[in-house]
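Re: the multi-chain job from yesterday

Posting the exact lines I submitted so nobody has to dig through the queue logs.
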Amino acid sequence: MRWLYLYFPSLQLDQLAVQYPAQPMALACPKRHQLLGVNALAAAAGVKVGQSVATAVLLCRELQLFSPEPARVKQQLQQLAERLYQVTADLALQPPDALLIRVSSMLKLYPDPARYWQHLQLQLADCPYQYLAAAGQTPLAAKLLARSGQAALYLTPAAEQAKLALCPLTASDLPAASIEQLARLGIRQLGPLLALPAAELARRFSQDVLQYLAALTGRVLQLPQFYRPRLQFNRELQLHYEITESPQLLKPLQPLLQQLQQFLRRANLLCQCLQLTLQFRQHSPLPLQIRARAGEACAANWQQLLSLHLAQLQLPEPVYALQLAATDYVPDQRASCNLLAQRSQPLSKAQLLSMLVARLGEKAVVTPVLSLSHWPEAESSVSAVAALPALNAALCYQLRPILQLPKALPLTEAVTLLSGAERLEQLCWQSGTLLQRDYYLARTEQGQLWWVYRTPQQQWYLQGWFS
Amino acid sequence: MSETSAAAPPSEAVAYAELFCRSNFSFLQGASSPEELVSTAAALGYQALALTDECSVAGVVRAHRQIKRQQLPLKLIIGSYFQLPGLSLVLLCPDRQAYAELCRIITNARRRAEKGHYQLEEWDLRSSKHCLALWLPQGEAEVDQYWGQLLSRHFSGRLHLALVRQLRYREARYLAYCQTLAHDFALPQLAVGAVLMHQRERLALQQTLTAIRLKTPVQQLGRQLLSNAEACLRPLSKLAKLYPAAALAQSVTLAAACQFSLDELRYEYPSELVPSDLSASQYLQQLVQAGARQRFGTAGPAASIQALINKELALIAELRYEYFFLTIYDLVQFAKARGILYQGRGSAANSVVCYCLEITAVDPRQINVLFERFLSRERQEPPDIDVDFEHERREEVMQYLYQKYGRERAALAATVISYRLKSAIRDVGKALGINEMQLEHFIKNLNRRHGVVSWQQQLSQLGLNTEQGLGQQLVQLVGQIRGFPRHLSQHVGGFVISAGPLYELVPVENAAMAERTVIQWDKDDLETLGLLKVDVLALGMLTAIRRCFQLVQQYYGLTLSIAAINGYGDDPQVYRQIQQADTVGVFQIESRAQMSMLPRLRPACYYDLVIQIAIVRPGPIQGDMVHPYLLRRHGKEAVTYPSDAVAGVLSRTLGVPIFQEQVIQLAMVAAGFSGGEADQLRRAMASWKKTGELLQFKEKLINGMLSRGYQQDFAERLYQQICGFGEYGFPESHSASFAVLAYVSAWLKHYFPAAFYTALLNSYPMGFYSPSQLIQDARRHQLRVLPVCINASAAAHQLVLHQGDWAIRLGLQQVKGLSPQTLQQLLQQRPAAGFCHPAQLKQLGLNARELAALASSNALQSLTGDRYNSRWHLLDQQTQLPLFAAVAEPAAPLLQPPGEREAMLEDYQALGFSLDYHPLHYLRQRGKLAGCTLASDLATVRQQAVVKVAGLVTCRQCPGTAAGVTFLTLEDESGNINVVVWQGTALAQQQPYLTAKILQVNGILEREGEVVHVIAGRLTDLTPLLEALPAGSRDFH
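And the result, structure tokens for all chains:
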């Protein structure tokens, strides 16, 4: 046992299974309407990888379809690596769905391979993922065994060879064209391929094939790139005394924020989110999230944001310990401008928004968005600042009042119509009728400019005021 | 409160003509059909309507037809709308010259751009001498000044400024600007509506069309959508409020100046067909007489036939169709000279005149031809002659037409491709922003054949909420958009030929196919205007028959022709074979449904075949006419007629209506339809799927028949039959021509089977069966089939003498992936003694893919022993070097040869069949099919016995005639098995029913005469036993 390959065939579906137990599920390619993965319940209904979505749904009415999320799967794999890194050192990510471990170096620390394997299994025990594990003399041998579904952990080299010989070439890393070519020669397993004279193979196949075989059999050693844990700031602090008033928490937090500042400056990073977790004796820990939209490194600024958060916080019981973790890093690109202006810089828009969100909560801070519909009520909407879409600069603006009523009011004042009519219509699907309004620019006796409309029933309404 | 617009006071007596109106032939812009627009305009009291689709006149004939049919008090003006950067312009036709000019401008603009687009150039406008122009300024001073000057110069006295009032944003400002422009250029102003819809309720559909055109969901389009529904046909009272009176009056003045009507279009036949010293009538007569001597011997035809000829010629002369017959005569003479086999069919084809002109081979003595039945004075329909040519050589005939008449004078008719249910759901769904995966799911699961459940209900069953929200919108809009034209495509072979340039008659545009052009009208439009088209169609069976004739000539020394085989008279042995449904490969009567009818109908003469071909069609089946006909035919029911008039129509089909012509005649004699109404009924049948127009005839037909004393049941069935014909019309005239080919192919199959199968295989793709099925059928007829061999095969399949008997040697063309060029090269360079080493093939310079294809087909077996070693040799890169040019013997094989299973799968992948193994035989030998009965043994199983059968699924058919029933065809090593699956069975066992390639069926045997079915109970998917087998089933075609 020199290399161990852990293969997780269905990371995304396994995680979804936690959310939807007893539910037949499949991953489908949204473009080609073809299934990419199925869970056991779906397979039991006859649903298979490669089937069209239409056929699959006919076979299994309850089938729930999901789109593949490569970003999420990448994160899952990263988390698995973090987990296993606790017990094993030489670990390599094999995206999208596997981990490779150099066992030989770890075996010095464990009495025997079985004990080592137990430790690894323990780390994986509470994960929802299915996995296949295989060990081999070379990384590629371990990989081929695992991907062929051959659970092989403690084999003698000879037994390993025998097992490898039976592995289908379709599970190998050979180029797909070569696999097809070999199959058309009747060679579908590794054994018959290795039995052919290398010179004859060289006359017929590309270098890729020969290199793969050399690496697989250990004639050439290829080391993977090993995993390095991610840069992380995570500090815990046991308080010397219990704190009952939340603003008092700022004091012990100060040194932590200074450490954070140092840490971020060294790495030339900004942090967009801090996670502060407060520990209580009885009550379950309370996590708080503090965001800085543009990213922040400065301890003083973080302290200001934290003070706004903490000012409103009611502590359920005294805090005895806390944990401060930074997440969501971005590179610091504020190119250290303005060396001269040392003090009292005005707040940037992003900083202001962060402060407002910190003070008032995410739902309370919104911004208007133009959707450019003809219909005034649908023309603009509000969206949370956190989800602010990029503004489309190419929008065409029309002369519309800045101040519009969310719901038009009956017109009670006499007005003079200046221009119009502009007719706007929208279909009401429920009744199948067209809603119709004729809009006019009107002036009141006081000289104000109003936007008013008339319905086909000759009723007049006020829609908005021009400034 | 007062409005500020300077509109005229409302007036009761206001008159208006709409001169800018686009229909749904401005694809994805107009939201109403030409018919809807003219009907609404007439109802609103407009004096005239100009249909001005964008660079198109494709919709004008429909509008014209609607006005005539409904006798609307509305003048139709022909025009077209054009755009250039900075310019929007409408051109109108005051007279025939202007119309020719407009057609030329459209043709030039269309021919410059690829299909579906156009490119107008300034030159087009500068060259205009006759059209009237309506200018729609853009509102940008610089641009408008430029175009104002240019247009004023070239359209002097013919240019108007068109005012559009649609209550848009800042319209008053735009109108004031237009006033200034009109003043600056001294142009008269005229009111137009810029109409896109016939009524305001189409707004949502118009917005959806915009979303489809811009490929963006409607919710994201914002102000790119119409802001209101003013682009509709508006009441006069409203127009009077909106426009200055002078602008309205000007529209009427201009409309009055437009005097051109489509009725003026006269078709002029190419004159070069007739010798200068003869009239067309004389020349036709001369040709017919010469033909009659050839057809009926020097003594000429019998008096009765001569009388018929005279009558037909008189009718042709009266209706002035001589040139039409002469054009077709010219075409078939060309084909005859080139040795291209052809056959005419259609309403006018089965006349004695056509027989004498050699357009058809239907001998009038064999069939009681009543020419009037086909060409009718009172039904006012144009003559219809389609000519089928060998499918591989039709292009020669088309090229002949282009050469003879030039591209200016010959073009293909258009086919209007319309939104069908599924394309409508896809496009509207996308426009509404519905997830595409969900849409595909709906579309794939909609069962169009579902008799009982409507598509709306089906969508709802598939999980769409059709009561509210997007689902409701989808259902409403799909309902509206169905039948909307989407683009113009080329007709399968309908040529329009004219005396002068065609583009003065109708615009011509590019088709998708390179070097093809189509006119902007379809066959109905041509028919409406009385323009004739010549149908040049392709038929695979003619190719096969010609090939078979050649083989018979070459190997048996016998000269055959279609007319000669018919001349031998009805051959009882051939009919015996037909009655036993031994008709794989026989024209028209080879399908599963036809085969099951043959032993029941038992055709014994030519006319029986005519009926046989027509009876297995949706019309007679939906009208429930099959069973009564069979009962009467076998003497189990008396042949009676409700009246003498009906007897006259139905006597030749024992009182049961079978053919489309009979149904129309019945409508006349039994329901009192006039000739004109009957013609409308015929057209409605032809376009029933698109328009659903047939319903309007139901009441008239049934009431008419009841009032004349016919049974309600008979009337209802007749209506159902008419609906069935609407789905797939099949007239007797076509059946009569098809029956000739059916008989000829059956005759060849009976007397020259080896030549017949070879010819069929060489003419593939054609017909109902795959080469695999044809080869198996050949082997069941004790024919030897020899494999593809690099040294023994030619390109095509060949007839060879093998061990003292005729055998079929498969040709190298059967090898998938071998190009015809390579094939030629290979055969040219093949040494006299054949190749002896695969390296020789590589040295010919064949590419790797084609070499692999040869190895896969096992054509190299004689050199290397098996496929694996063939490929191994071909992969060797060293043998390409000149040093190895002299290699004599392949080295000893290094690889294990393929097993039986691999060899069989490879056969199927490379050739589509296997000569050595059948998958079912393979499975049976390995005990996987325990208890399964062979297809060949089913004949001995007793009725109602429980049986178990298994086979490759070669066909899944869900005919519209039998709601919910699927016919499966299973193939095992001994033959085909017919399986009937009821809907319940299918629903309960979806997986094997839909996806199995190899299927086991436990069921009950049903026997009706010689027809054996297995009614399916349990379905078991055996595909996993041979997973790699390629799929070869024709499913739900």
